Amino acid sequence: MAGLLQALVGASEKAAHIARLCRREEPLFQLLVAEKTGADRNRRFLQDFKTLADVLIQEVIKHDLGKEFPELQGHIHGEESNEFKNGQGESRGGGQQSRGPPRLQGLRLRLGMAVTGETVTVRVCAAPGDTAALLLSVLEPERAAAELLAAAVHRDVALGDTELAGVALSIPPQDLAIWIDPIDSTNEYIRGREDVAPVDGIAPGGLCSALVLIGAYDRHTGCPVLGVINEPFFRRDPLTRRWQGRYHWGVAYGDTRLSSLSPPPLRPTPCVVLSRAEGAAVRGALSPLCGDRLHFAAGAGYKMLCVILGLADAYVLSEGSTFAWDACAPHAILRALGGGMVALEEALRARRVGNTGTPQELVYNRPVEGAEGAERWANRGGLVAYVHPQNLEAVLATL
């Protein structure tokens, strides 16, 4: 398991590098957006986007982890479909029109790609040249960019993290499965705002809320056991003006609780972070508890990270608009710090019938019965993320 934890962190670092690379090529970036439709669409947003960065990062993580740990193959799940439209005149997210690439018959024969009409199935090929050729089928005529991305996909990552290297754990990888959110808060990633001022340390939006989330859970119980959160856009280097990232990890397995972070202190007046779309009823109910410490931010993963870092004491969401891939990695880190994540609706229902014990936490191996597409893995009934049980109790009692 120690090797798997290091592999998850290494995969997140490669993913963060690709995310920065895609954003850095601004003229190219306008070609990378395709709007989600149908069952893959998150209905909470009028427009829900995926980017080539999302798809490529997800497939890189699947490829690298599956190659190093064959026991995980078939058990590495992600948010995105790996199909990408590249048809001439096809409208992409943000109203951009793509430039039609040449026909793909030769590439199909060479790579054995699954191509339907003008849809390319993005995957990692055996050699950088083949991956570059596949990417060029989406990015034509940006050959240099396709080769740059392919080089990033195939590069080795050296962590140099002595603390991580010293972690010794034992759990068979064949007992685990993975949830990936390749770029959480994709809309903020696409908009790319760099000048959003934080309020009490919490950024209401912007590029900093775009995260890479990789979580491992027990296949049998659904309990999250390993989590990695990578912040690709943590800060800019003052000299090069290039973005630098950082990562956080946590382990919660059996009696083992390990993390790259320390639990934040318990404060007398809790700070709660909400989505900007949260309803007036929840806002009004929490205001007496928090006073002026009610904050709003973009990105489910980012709001969970705010709790992990102690910038907020709880994240409350009343709608079923988050998914297994949003929550698995942060949940594992929260558990490592002594906290957790519970389904809000179920917890409130239990309290109404007099059950004031610790609510059951979210699990990640149970699709929603009768649902289709992304909704199969929705966290129905909202959630509460917390580190200190006292804050969970205060929120539930208030609501």
Keywords:
inositol-1,4-bisphosphate 1-phosphatase; metal-binding; 20% strand; Inositol_monophosphatase_CS; EC 3.1.3.57; 399 residues; five-stranded mixed β-sheet; alpha+beta; six-stranded mixed β-sheet; 13 helices; magnesium
Explain this structure to me?
This protein is of the alpha+beta class. It has a domain at 4-35 and 42-87 and 118-154. The protein has helices at residues 2-24, 26-29, 52-68, 105-111, 128-139, 143-154, 162-165, 186-191, 280-290, 300-308, 324-336, 344-352, 389-398, and strands spanning 33-35, 49-51, 76-78, 83-85, 115-116, 119-121, 176-184, 211-218, 224-236, 243-253, 256-259, 272-274, 294-296, 314-317, 340-342, 383-386. The strands form four sheets. A six-stranded mixed β-sheet has the order 3-7-8-9-10-11, with helices on both faces. A five-stranded mixed β-sheet has the order 13-12-14-16-15, with helices on both faces. A three-stranded antiparallel β-sheet has the order 4-6-5, covered by helices on one side. Strand 5 and strand 6 form a beta hairpin. Helix 5 (128-139) packs across helix 6 (143-154) and helix 10 runs parallel beside helix 11. The longest helix is centred in the first third of the chain and has 23 residues, at 2-24. The model is unreliable at 87-117 (pLDDT under 50).
